[in-house]
């Protein structure tokens, strides 16, 4: 796979704005482990190897066990996730697959039962920015480090 273009070079202002939105998580109300869990899940759904390669180590550093990461793709069937994580993952799945889900009331209601408004808004911003970054990485064929080293 060959990269198509470098969006940081082609449109630096837009990429700076997107990265700034993504980096604002440091001021968000969401714990680092949940933040990383959501980012990995969205990247799984979208099939973004570049982002998975980047965020799986971050997830482990944030304290998420390898066992939990191993079953993340099947989170609905796994007892490894608590009620808050399930609500956040359901919302992430619903918004990432919005063309199929329409962001159902059941997913929002589960979220609202476990998170205050600020955290709901912050989770939604995390989901939006991660989906945008996945689409840029996939669309422009960003190469993750394994591909770069194998191509050399």
TrEMBL record:
<dbReference type="GO" id="GO:0051920">
    <property type="term" value="F:peroxiredoxin activity"/>
</dbReference>
<dbReference type="Pfam" id="PF02627">
    <property type="entry name" value="CMD"/>
</dbReference>
<dbReference type="InterPro" id="IPR004675">
    <property type="entry name" value="AhpD_core"/>
</dbReference>
<protein>
    <submittedName>
        <fullName>Carboxymuconolactone decarboxylase family protein</fullName>
    </submittedName>
</protein>
<dbReference type="InterPro" id="IPR003779">
    <property type="entry name" value="CMD-like"/>
</dbReference>
<feature type="domain" description="Carboxymuconolactone decarboxylase-like">
    <location>
        <begin position="12"/>
        <end position="93"/>
    </location>
</feature>
<dbReference type="InterPro" id="IPR029032">
    <property type="entry name" value="AhpD-like"/>
</dbReference>
């Amino acid at each position: 796979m060959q990269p198509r273009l470098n969006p940081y070079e082609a449109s630096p202002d837009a990429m700076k704005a997107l990265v700034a939105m993504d980096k604002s998580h440091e001021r968000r109300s969401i714990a680092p482990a949940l933040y990383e869990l959501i980012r990995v899940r969205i990247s799984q759904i979208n099939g973004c190897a570049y982002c998975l390669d980047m965020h799986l180590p971050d997830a482990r550093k944030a304290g998420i066990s390898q066992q939990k990461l191993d079953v993340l793709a099947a989170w609905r069937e796994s007892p490894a996730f608590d009620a808050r994580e399930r609500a956040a993952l359901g919302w992430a799945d619903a918004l990432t697959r919005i063309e199929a889900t329409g962001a159902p009331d059941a997913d929002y209601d589960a979220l609202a039962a476990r998170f205050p408004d600020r955290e709901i808004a912050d989770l939604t911003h995390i989901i939006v920015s991660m989906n945008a970054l996945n689409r840029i990485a996939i669309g422009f064929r960003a190469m993750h480090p394994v591909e770069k080293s194998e191509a050399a």
